[in-house]
């Protein structure tokens, strides 16, 4: 009997893992906390309940929250009880996703018709994991400056691939290292694409960046959460976490809450910010920790690439009113990068302390990077899709990655002027 029950459960899980998730029964709200108390209530809700906050609530700003019809009245009652201003902006989230998909397909068709011969890489569409890994392998095979390596494996046995770009063909440990990852949050596709664009530029247009590539080594993990990334392409566009099965009901650990610095227990495994059973419990976390420790002696900068909000954030991010020792250096460089974005026609980005500007979050990679010895550690939140969708339309992707490139250039050029940590002593 028990065995049968188990079989039924497995069948349900297998089905849930393979059928495309529809958001027809979900609606999108904008909520706007006007007081600190309302902000606290909303953040509490985001952490404890399993509503999907596309943005974390910030004071006097709109945040997008996706709520099922089933939870609608409970959610609205909560907002009304706390006198929180809200707008129901979309009745059927699936319609936005479908509209975006259609527009993306049309755009792809147009680009295909207009560009002849077709370039080998393009930033007109979001790449699949296969396309990303294939491109990395291609660069590794064709360029002396590129090395491609496996950093670890996921629960679903996918390789987590890393790539280095170095002048001599390997990380010298005598030049400062910039360590980066993207795709820790599966649905944040713009971040992943910006890193692929950076790799493409640094490798295939290297003359343009020779001054900075001579002085700095790059170690990059473009998709730190490959299981989640594939899941967003194949099953559920809005998935954020990895794919660990926490219990019968809920899957996924938020890897950006799982790192072993100021880790904090969260009880509800179904929330989008579930921190895992224990610190460093996830394979992806362990893989990334391995890189932090491998390059420790030359590690100078760490960049966590996320979407969205157009923000450049520095530590500490786990609590309010606690700035890291060299926060002014972080802030100055962040502002330089923001100015560079504006100089290429981008919008005005916000630069500041992660907890202040966004919210406090424990066990995140940025703090772990700083704690592991990186002189500079940032989270960058790239351009997102507004109420029109979680991420940008593909037609706007090209501009977003060019803007992000301004940050990578500004940061890299500065790092090239710094001594490696061991030379400081
Ligand atoms: O919540 C996060 O993990 C990041 N934002 S996102 O919308 N991409 O999910 C921000 C993390 C900022 N860092 C810290 N607060 N430590
Ligand atoms: Zn993120």
Write the CATH homologous superfamily of the largest domain. Answer: Zn peptidases
**Cα distance, first to last residue?**
66 Å
Estimated radius of gyration: 21 Å
The global form is: globular
Number of helices: 14
In a few lines, what is going on in this structure?
With 425 residues, this protein is an alpha/beta fold.
Description:
The protein is α/β, with parallel strands linked by helices and 425 residues long. The chain folds into two domains: 67 residues, Metallocarboxypeptidase-like (Alpha-Beta Plaits, 2-Layer Sandwich); 297 residues, Aminopeptidase (3-Layer(aba) Sandwich). The strands form two sheets. It has an eight-stranded mixed sheet with strand order 5-6-8-7-9-12-10-11, with helices on both faces. Strands 2-3-1-4 form a four-stranded antiparallel sheet. Helix 10 links the parallel strand 10 and strand 11. Helix 6 packs across helix 13 and helix 10 packs across helix 13. The N terminus is likely disordered. The protein binds N~2~-sulfamoyl-L-arginine and zinc ion. The site of N~2~-sulfamoyl-L-arginine has 17 residues, from helix 11, helix 12 and strand 12.
Q: What does the secondary structure layout of this molecule look like, with pairings?
A:
Blueprint lengths: L1 H17 L7 E7 L3 H13 L3 E2 L9 E6 L3 H10 L3 E6 L2 H22 L14 H14 L3 E8 L5 E7 L11 E6 L6 H16 L5 H6 L1 E5 L4 H9 L48 H12 L4 E9 L3 E4 L12 H17 L6 E4 H4 L7 H7 L4 E7 L11 H22 L5 H4 L1
The structure holds N~2~-sulfamoyl-L-arginine and zinc ion.
The site of zinc ion has 3 residues, from loops.
């Amino acid at each position: 009997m028990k065995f049968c029950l188990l079989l039924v459960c497995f069948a349900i899980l297998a089905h849930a893992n393979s059928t495309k998730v529809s958001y027809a029964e979900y609606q999108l709200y904008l909520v706007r906390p006007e007081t600190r108390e309302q902000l606290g209530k909303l953040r509490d809700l985001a952490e404890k309940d399993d509503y999907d906050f596309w943005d974390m609530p910030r004071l006097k700003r709109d945040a997008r929250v996706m709520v099922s019809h089933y939870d609608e009245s409970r959610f609205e009652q909560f907002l009304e009880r706390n006198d929180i201003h809200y707008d129901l902006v979309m009745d059927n989230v699936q319609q936005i996703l479908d509209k975006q998909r259609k527009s993306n397909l049309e755009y792809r068709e147009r680009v295909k018709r207009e560009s002849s011969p077709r370039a080998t890489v393009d930033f007109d569409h979001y790449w699949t994991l296969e396309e990303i890994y294939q491109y990395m392998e291609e660069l590794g095979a064709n360029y002396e400056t590129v090395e491609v390596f496996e950093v670890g494996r996921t629960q679903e046995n996918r390789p987590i691939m890393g790539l280095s770009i170095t002048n001599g063909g390997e990380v010298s440990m005598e030049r400062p290292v910039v360590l980066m990852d993207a795709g820790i949050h599966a649905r944040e596709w713009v971040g992943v694409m910006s890193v692929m664009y950076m790799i493409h530029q640094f490798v295939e247009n290297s003359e343009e960046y020779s001054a900075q590539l001579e002085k700095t080594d790059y170690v990059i993990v473009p998709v730190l959460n490959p299981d989640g990334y594939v899941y967003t392409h194949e099953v559920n566009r809005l998935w954020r976490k990895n794919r660990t099965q926490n219990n019968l009901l809920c899957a996924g650990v938020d890897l950006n809450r799982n790192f072993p610095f100021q880790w904090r227990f969260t009880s509800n495994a179904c929330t989008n910010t579930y921190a895992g059973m224990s610190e460093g419990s996830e394979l992806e976390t362990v893989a990334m920790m391995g890189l932090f420790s491998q390059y420790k002696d030359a590690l100078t900068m760490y960049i966590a690439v996320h979407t969205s909000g157009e923000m450049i954030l520095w530590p500490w991010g786990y609590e309010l009113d606690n700035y890291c020792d060299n926060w002014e250096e972080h802030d100055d460089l962040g502002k330089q990068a923001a100015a560079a974005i504006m100089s290429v026609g981008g919008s005005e980005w916000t630069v500041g302390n992660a907890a202040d500007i966004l919210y406090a979050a424990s066990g995140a990679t940025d703090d772990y990077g700083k704690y592991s010895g990186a002189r500079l550690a940032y989270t960058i939140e790239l351009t997102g899709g507004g109420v029109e969708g979680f991420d940008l339309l593909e037609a706007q992707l090209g501009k977003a990655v060019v803007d992000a490139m301004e940050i990578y250039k500004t940061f890299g050029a500065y790092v090239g002027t710094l001594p490696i940590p061991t030379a400081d002593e």
